[in-house]
Write a structure and sequence with these properties.
By secondary structure, the chain is α/β, with parallel strands linked by helices. The chain has 33 helices and 25 strands. It has 2 domains: about 375 residues, Glycogen Phosphorylase B (Rossmann fold); about 250 residues, 3-Layer(aba) Sandwich (Rossmann fold), CATH 3.40.50.2000. The strands form 6 sheets. Strands 1, 4, 7, 8, 11, 12, 13, 14, 18 and 19 form a 10-stranded mixed β-sheet that branches. Strands 22-21-20-23-24-25 form a 6-stranded parallel β-sheet, sandwiched between helices. A hairpin with a 5-residue loop joins strand 16 and strand 17. It starts with about 25 loop residues before the first helix and ends in a 9-residue tail after the last helix. The structure holds ligand NBY. The site of ligand NBY has 22 residues, from helix 6.
């Protein structure tokens, strides 16, 4: 089914972490100094929060030294740099990561211990920096870690949201959203840079003028102007040499056209303008995989793109003046999905209207500057903006988009003369009842390279999403399989396993993850198996403690820890997992001696606040969990946990404790997945479909070390073509019927029959768009294999070890190397110490 491929080697340019820059005594002194001089408190009064801030401040001193040296090196070498444009950066916590990357974790632990303080408790004080929804935002965070580690000149550009992704509470089984306030008591890492404030225009109208050479000149007269205030977060590479920055823009009122109101005595009215301007960076839209179509969202996108481009051009001009000829040698911009696609017409506007370059020259620069990453094929996630909305907010940009499209349509006409069907498909403008601007088409047309995020996804991007673009420009579409940083996702989050690996193969694997293959020779070694599984067991005990604290439930740590953690979405099929749990529950009730190894099913997932069915599935999981966990007939064998407020810092506690990793999306729907990589790296065995990066994980670990089930992409297409009817499965499979009917009773919601019915109906009258029922039997059979494999302790230990050993390909260092080779054409810049 799967073939074995050799993991591409990520030859890291970075060297081993050096001896720490501070010893224990010096770090201790620095922490205490900050307690006194930065926080104005002392050792006796300080609580953990104060200790956290003082420790951050002590570490930040070293970080900033690295930042200065890096910026100096980049400046003097006039380096080409990648500018990673992303509406989301899901950074999580920074203290532990920065300490690890500076090789100061042990030192800090010892220093704080001597001060009578627990580092673990101090780390828990840090709020997650949750400026992202899920995979796409976390990928950006892993990528900037790898870029710094590999000493690549790079800058991340995004939005300084006041509120990141909402905090999830579970009340009576249902999700409640609460605002996230990650900066409430100050963020010790960020540095405000008022000297680099930019101004951004919005609204207004376009004036057409005739220049002296008869040239038509366009002038945009904006209706309002907002300020972008940059906040820099230093990004420390592993080894601490290169420190890049993540620059996030906060919106602020510019005071533009407030003055009349103000002078007329309208002090309070003038504040309305301020509030509107400041709304732009207020809150992260909490949708993944759906496009909201909201005006404020478009303004957010333009706001951060316009600020970032001005920043880039200011820096370029400092070195090269008005000579644009070297711009594309110095600057490459990566668009993280289409959210920053408006940067394409914005750069055209700057070049044509401001720099007065002719269109062809400007377009040549543009199409050598941008590259675009596609993260989804789901139609509801592909961004489209009403032309009328663009016209109102960005009138000049709409004109430029029309011009780009006009010229592109001429190219299409040359390639496919008279073919109007192809033209309407490739056009940036969708001529529906309401004219729409397709940001995906704009991104492909305006970029020199377009990539998908796993082999199968990139193949589908070529074959199904953009086949004509692929014919037109055969070199443009490519693949870069996603990756994860092994520093955060193994070294920092799983210290016991890291120490065991260090002992076996040395400590260079965080920089060259393919070295983990050296563990494979120990996969059959009884002693190593014992050590490996002891680490897993200890991690399970630690997670059980967290579960107890968060939910009150005591879980059986001898059970299989079966974990599904990701955003809640129908295509990810948490409800397929739930159907299987219900099947086990029924089997146990019908046959009390039903033979299964005890299992704890653990979920973590946030639903978009407006996604009703996703919230219903969360409610169903919680209600089923409540029933099962309180049913003494089954709860020694079966338990279900829903951990509230899934986020990066919770993932770091869950992943090291997983035995089984659930990666069960409908084939063709999950572009890549990255949680699948994190779990396998920590020795969890995947139960998964042949979807996204699961396919490449299977190639690496081999068929014996993964449980693949379900329809393939081709089989899904074939079934849909023939006409899929969930009723066929419902009526022919007694177990499926019984489970679905069960959901409609009041068994799980006493006194409230039908409270879980929406889940059933989505799978029957709703048409089961993601084929849960079609894949159910295959899934259930795979789970029986999991059960059998786990009971064979030696076999399982070997599988777990092989998963860790074979994950080398999935380091984000390898992804970055692929981007460098296939897209960015960058060279590392060695920072002098
Ligand atoms: O990007 C995810 C993919 O689903 C996953 O398979 C892949 O591994 C990961 C990294 O490549 N996509 C994702 O996370 N998308 C979003 O978070 C997202 C957020 C906002 C919007 C759309 C998608 N939006 O339109 O607002």
């Amino acid at each position: 089914k799967t073939k074995k491929s050799k993991a591409s080697q990520a030859a890291s340019t970075a060297a081993a972490p050096e001896t720490p820059k501070l010893d224990k005594g010096e770090l201790k002194a620095a922490i205490v100094r900050h307690l006194h001089c930065t926080l104005g408190t002392d050792e006796n009064k300080a609580n953990n929060h104060a200790w956290w801030k003082a420790t951050c401040a002590a570490i930040q001193e070293l970080v900033l030294e690295g930042l200065r040296k890096t910026q100096k090196s980049h400046y003097f070498n006039d380096t080409r740099a990648v500018h990673y444009f992303s509406a989301e950066f899901l950074m999580g916590r920074l203290l532990s990561n920065n300490m690890h990357n500076l090789n100061l974790f042990e030192t800090a632990n010892d220093a704080l211990t001597e001060l009578g303080i627990s580092l673990t408790d101090v780390l828990e004080e840090e709020p997650d920096m949750a400026l992202g929804n899920g995979g796409l935002g976390r990928l950006a965070a892993c990528f900037i870690d790898s870029l710094a580690t590999m000493e690549m000149p790079a800058i991340g550009y995004g939005i300084h949201y006041e509120h990141g992704l909402f905090r999830q509470e579970i009340k009576n089984g249902a999700q409640i959203e609460r605002p996230d306030s990650w900066r409430d008591y100050g963020n010790p890492w960020e540095i405000c840079r008022p000297e680099s404030i930019q101004e951004v225009s919005l609204y207004g109208y376009v004036e057409t003028k005739y220049g002296d050479n008869g040239r038509i000149q366009k002038e945009w007269h904006p209706g309002s102007i907002v300020k972008g205030v940059p906040w820099d977060i230093p990004v420390v590479g592993y080894g601490g040499k290169t420190v890049n920055v993540l620059r996030l823009w906060q919106s602020q009122s510019s005071g533009y056209f407030n003055w009349d109101v103000f002078n007329a005595g309208g002090y309070v009215d003038a504040q309305v303008e301020n509030v509107q301007a400041e709304t732009i960076s207020k809150v992260l839209y909490p949708n993944d995989e759906t496009e909201a179509g909201k005006e404020l969202r478009l303004i957010q996108q333009y706001f951060f793109c316009a600020c970032s481009l001005k920043d880039i051009i200011r820096r370029y001009k400092r070195a090269h003046g008005d000579d644009w000829s070297r711009f594309t040698d110095q600057v490459v911009i990566q668009l993280n999905d289409t959210h920053p696609a408006i940067a394409i017409p914005e750069l055209m506007r700057i070049l044509v209207d401001r720099a007065e370059l002719d269109w062809d020259k400007a377009w040549q620069i543009c199409t050598k500057t941008f590259a675009y990453t596609n993260h989804t094929l789901l139609p509801e996630a592909l961004e489209k903006w009403p032309a009328r909305m663009l016209e109102k907010i960005l009138p000049r940009h709409l004109e430029i988009i029309y011009e780009i499209n006009h010229r592109f349509m001429a190219e299409v006409e040359k390639k496919w003369p008279g073919d109007n069907a192809i033209k309407s498909k490739l056009s940036i403008i969708e001529e529906s009842s309401e004219k729409m601007v397709r940001m995906g088409n704009l991104s492909v047309i305006g970029s020199f390279r377009v990539n998908g995020v796993a082999e199968i996804h990139s193949m589908l991007v070529k074959k199904n999403l953009f086949p004509e673009f692929d014919q037109l420009w055969p070199e443009k579409l490519t693949n870069v399989t996603n990756g994860i940083t092994p520093r955060r996702w193994l070294k920092a989050c799983n210290p016991a396993l890291s120490a065991l690996i260090d002992k076996k193969i040395g400590d260079q694997w965080p920089l060259n993850l393919s070295q983990l293959t050296e563990l494979a020779v120990y996969a059959d070694n009884k002693t190593f198996q014992k050590q490996f599984m002891k680490v897993k067991q200890d991690n399970k005990v630690a997670l059980a403690q967290t579960i107890k604290e968060l939910t009150g439930l005591t879980v059986n740590t001898d059970a299989i820890f079966d974990i599904q953690i990701k955003r809640l979405h129908e295509y990810k099929r948490q409800h397929l997992n739930l159907l299987h749990i219900l099947a086990l529950y029924r089997r146990l009730l019908e046959n009390p001696s039903y033979d299964m190894h005890p299992r704890v099913f653990i979920f973590g997932a946030k639903a978009a606040p407006g996604y009703t069915l996703a919230k219903d599935i969360i409610f169903a999981i919680n209600k089923v969990a409540e029933k099962i966990n309180n049913d003494p007939r089954v709860n020694t064998k079966l338990q279900v946990v829903f951990l509230p407020n899934y986020r990066v810092s919770l993932a770091e506690k869950m992943i090291p404790a997983a035995d089984v990793s659930e990666q069960i999306s409908t084939a063709g729907k999950e572009a890549s997945g990255t949680g699948n990589m994190k779990l396998a790296l920590n020795g969890a065995v995947t139960v998964g479909t042949l979807d996204g990066a699961n396919i490449e994980i299977a190639e690496e670990v081999g068929d014996d070390n993964i449980f693949i089930f379900g329809l393939t992409v081709d089989e899904v297409a074939e079934l849909k073509r023939k006409g899929y009817s969930p009723d066929d499965y419902y009526y022919k499979n007694a177990e499926i019927k019984a489970i679905l009917d069960w959901l409609e009773t009041d068994y799980f919601t006493p006194g409230k029959p039908g409270a879980l019915a929406s889940v059933k109906h989505s799978l029957l009258s709703g048409g089961d768009p993601y084929l849960c029922l079609a894949d159910f039997d295959s899934y259930s059979a795979a789970q029986e294999q999991v059960d059998a494999a786990y009971r064979d302790k030696t076999r399982w230990a070997k599988m777990a070890i092989m998963n860790t050993a074979m994950m080398g390909k999935f380091t984000s260092d390898r992804s970055i190397k692929d981007y460098v080779d296939r897209v960015w054409n960058l060279t590392a810049c060695i920072v002098e110490n």
